[in-house]
Amino acid sequence: MNTKELPRFSRRSFLAASAGVAAATAMPLRPLVAAESHEYSLVAARGRTRLIGAKYPDTAVWAYNGTVPGPEIRVRQGDRLRVSVENRLDEETTVHWHGLRVPNAMDGVPHLTQKPIAPGKIFNYEFDVPDAGTYWYHPHQRGFEQVARGLYGPLIVEEREPIQVDRDLTWVLDDWRLKSDAQISDDFGNFHDMSHNGRVGNSLTVNGRAPDNFAVRGGERIRLRLINAANARIFALEFAGHRPMVIAYDGQPVDPHAAPNGRVILGPAMRMDIVIHMTNRPGERFTVTDTFYKGLEYRVLDLVYGPKPLRDRPLQSSISLAANTMPEPDLAAPIRHDVQFGGGMMGGMMMGMMGGNRVSMRDMMRNGKAWTINGVAATGHVMDPLLTLARGRTYVLALNNDTAWHHPIHLHGHSFRVISRNGKPTRHREWQDTVLMSPRERTEIAFVADNPGDWMFHCHILEHQAGGMMGVIRVA
Ligand code: C2O
Ligand code: CU
Which protein residue's CA is at the shortest distance from atom 1 of ligand 1? Predict the structure, then answer.
């Protein structure tokens, strides 16, 4: 991986660069910093990129502006963002701004919030960016294939008063299911993936390249913005020899604290901002390992200390981020609802609703559905709301994972506080937009329903979403 300070591109050079699809990708992320204008262009199209190293041929991908990940959009909190999205794919698409609290019509959900962008057409997204943090963008149309083929990119909203760091870096993590010729296996949405733990791949990339050594310097303070763009893989990163401090979950500030048990856990779509102080000596090297799946631990990359320390002692200034603008839930008088997540293999034979009919699990499976929310398997993005919330009121939703599987559950249009897990109050009451639930876990989330519209509420293992684990929450 290239460890230099990321180059900053003006809009003009970015557009020029985006024309050269083929060779452009063996590069670090390209931040888009608009000097005066906040207008950006994304073109979704087929491309080729060197994903996994010189020994292999380029991989055919679908990409924004020819790069995987797509360009890093970087704006300041409070900015207005305009992005024109041109669809040069052979099928419809949309862009969803994951985690940003945008107006409903800008949320990028096909048929529910907009007409999908047809091949050859352009859609202009435009909205204010209310909160600082680490976000990302991706299609919501056939996401289980479009995202898996490479359509995603980071969206960074800078604080008005950032914390002091030596480097502010984004690592977009993805895992790919590649065949031996380095081409993407096209078994998207197969029933086995759908009914088990999703499309877990076999090749890891960080910022679109097989990770390599990562050069650091003694005394450095690095802010690492981690984004899990994988369809299904859950990461638990352990940084040997270091003590990562979590400063934000899903873009939202949290009291800085050491990553619990030294593990940085990210379900699909989740982000984490961590600060790492490089406290070791010149020439030393430390391995970052992913330990999430027992027995399948693997080395991600090594942190390698260069010969010259940057300074003797890491910076001492605060790493605490200023709060964002979410209204505080009124936990003295919330309205409560239970939500049940069901289905999957080893879930027992249940009945579910599909397309308005009551059907057996076997019939659901025959129709390519494997999962339910409150007993309903979604068959598309447009559906009757599972809950209708009164605008401005505080809600506590108890999410019950009645399955044998992990699910990262995402709510559009809002961030929520995770207030308890299995009856135990959480230590940090963290704001999130995607909460990873363990098998059989009961998790309570709390938020003010302040953003009107119909919002998707779904599992972000994209095969589970396609397999029915999706619903609509209406705020009216
Ligand atoms: Cu990241 Cu419904 O999306
Ligand atoms: Cu799931």
Answer: 98
E-strand spans in 306-441?
A: 335-343, 351-354, 357-360, 371-373, 376-377, 387-389, 394-401, 407-411, 416-421, 424-425, 431-432, 434-437
pLDDT band at 27 (very low <50, low <70, confident <90, very high): very low
Domain with residue 250: its CATH number is: 2.60.40.420
User: Before 69, cis peptide (omega within 30)?
Assistant: yes
Residue where a domain stops, chosen among 285, 305, 325: 305
Phi–psi pair at 4, nearest 5 degrees: -65, 160
What does the pLDDT read at residue 31?
Answer: 52
Alpha-carbon distance of 153 to 107, in angstroms, equals 16
Instruction: For residue 182, give its domain range.
Output: 168-305
Q: What is the pLDDT of residues 196-252, one digit of tens each?
A: 999 999 999 999 999 989 999 999 999 999 999 999 999 999 999 999 999 999 999
Do 85 and 186 belong to one domain? no
Write the CB contacts of 389 (distance below 8 Å, at least 6 apart in sequence): 335, 395, 449, 473, 474, 475, 476
Residues 405 and 435 in one domain: yes
Q: Does residue 464 have its Cβ closer than 6 Å to ligand 1?
A: no
For residue 268, give the ligand nearest its CA.
1
**Token match 């088990």: residue?**
196
Asked whether residue 319 is assigned to any structural domain, the reply reads no
Structure confidence at residue 4 (pLDDT): 31
98 lines ligand 1 (CB under 6 A): yes
Q: Report the domain count for the chain.
A: 3
CB 113 within 8 A of CB 432: no
